[in-house]
Here is the input.
Amino acid sequence: MLKNKMEKLKTFKVEYAVLKNNTLVDKSVIIKSIDDPNRIKKLAKLDISTKERIFIQDVKILNVEAV
Here is the structure.
């Protein structure tokens, strides 16, 4: 998806919360993306939903910070 972009990719730490098996889980993930907040949130939600095996709607992004 980002292969056609000639912009430099930055590393971001994304903290998130999910409700899994009636338990609130707070974790973080590190992703590489361009410096666009909407793109970062979209990619993070997709990555987290795939990793945690839950629906995208159940992912809540708490914090995004550059590493």
Remarks:
- The longest strand covers residues 10-20.
